[in-house]
């Protein structure tokens, strides 16, 4: 039964990753259709991420009241409807409206499943969980590229992903008895009742929150503006740029698959540090080289470097701050992560409008430096 439940959780995380990477891949085509400035993607991204922040903050209460299974079921249904709305998008305002339920649903799924796996499964399963997110994130641009190249319509890409989400809703409905056997609602309530009254006073929490903020800011910035960087700086066509961005997400996916095995040899702290170093190498390649294969290698390295950082930080939460505080803190950390997703990419878009998208790898490196410093600060505080 545990295996069957894990399979369902993994499938749910694939569906979570699918829409996350599609906006950036589709944006060069969307902005042409609607005659919108390049920075317009930032507002849609901000609306989606704003929804995830709200749902992350209130996820603890929802989990205690409904349990993981029902929260995930309702949230996947919301994302399916939102993506269906994107597929019927005929103007920019409509896309902004459809982004609201997409963000609310995505944030609730993320927190619910991350907390469940952190409490009940090992570090390798946390890494593989996010590997399956990478499968979805890799497939998203591929689906979008196929829709644009075959039909000339980015709406078809969103329609295909909406259909996949609807199928997942049916799977989750059938699996509800399996979740009840595991009694996730009662277990989560028992653990959360022992949580600290004010988790914000825990030592090392503030730099930890900053590191989550920076990680998601970096990952989203790399995915959202990567295609625009390729089209406007490297002269790549929109459909080819979408495929190239899928390589970035493919790097995250493969890295997390391998990381699941490496967790037996290296600690979460070491994996976080090595991942950041690899990101720096990839960003440096993007800054220095113009050769096609070097640019591809840079995107792959950034993706591989991202692979161990986020799941390792999440799984380290009970170790750093106590298992009894895990439910509250994972929701809080996810909220800060989504704040990075919400605010930084639009700012990067505005800066790119003034300075030029050619500074894309410089922006990635700047975020990385802050993230590295905050993670090392957490390590020093907790060590003492």
TrEMBL record:
<feature type="transmembrane region" description="Helical">
    <location>
        <begin position="208"/>
        <end position="228"/>
    </location>
</feature>
<keyword id="KW-0472">Membrane</keyword>
<feature type="transmembrane region" description="Helical">
    <location>
        <begin position="295"/>
        <end position="314"/>
    </location>
</feature>
<feature type="transmembrane region" description="Helical">
    <location>
        <begin position="34"/>
        <end position="54"/>
    </location>
</feature>
<comment type="similarity">
    <text>Belongs to the major facilitator superfamily.</text>
</comment>
<keyword id="KW-1133">Transmembrane helix</keyword>
<feature type="transmembrane region" description="Helical">
    <location>
        <begin position="335"/>
        <end position="354"/>
    </location>
</feature>
<dbReference type="InterPro" id="IPR011701">
    <property type="entry name" value="MFS"/>
</dbReference>
<feature type="transmembrane region" description="Helical">
    <location>
        <begin position="92"/>
        <end position="119"/>
    </location>
</feature>
<protein>
    <submittedName>
        <fullName>Fucose permease</fullName>
    </submittedName>
</protein>
<feature type="transmembrane region" description="Helical">
    <location>
        <begin position="66"/>
        <end position="86"/>
    </location>
</feature>
<dbReference type="GO" id="GO:0022857">
    <property type="term" value="F:transmembrane transporter activity"/>
</dbReference>
<feature type="domain" description="Major facilitator superfamily (MFS) profile">
    <location>
        <begin position="5"/>
        <end position="378"/>
    </location>
</feature>
<feature type="transmembrane region" description="Helical">
    <location>
        <begin position="158"/>
        <end position="179"/>
    </location>
</feature>
<dbReference type="InterPro" id="IPR020846">
    <property type="entry name" value="MFS_dom"/>
</dbReference>
<feature type="transmembrane region" description="Helical">
    <location>
        <begin position="270"/>
        <end position="289"/>
    </location>
</feature>
<keyword id="KW-0813">Transport</keyword>
<dbReference type="GO" id="GO:0005886">
    <property type="term" value="C:plasma membrane"/>
</dbReference>
<feature type="transmembrane region" description="Helical">
    <location>
        <begin position="360"/>
        <end position="378"/>
    </location>
</feature>
<keyword id="KW-0812">Transmembrane</keyword>
<dbReference type="Pfam" id="PF07690">
    <property type="entry name" value="MFS_1"/>
</dbReference>
<dbReference type="InterPro" id="IPR036259">
    <property type="entry name" value="MFS_trans_sf"/>
</dbReference>
<feature type="transmembrane region" description="Helical">
    <location>
        <begin position="131"/>
        <end position="152"/>
    </location>
</feature>
<dbReference type="InterPro" id="IPR051788">
    <property type="entry name" value="MFS_Transporter"/>
</dbReference>
<feature type="transmembrane region" description="Helical">
    <location>
        <begin position="240"/>
        <end position="258"/>
    </location>
</feature>
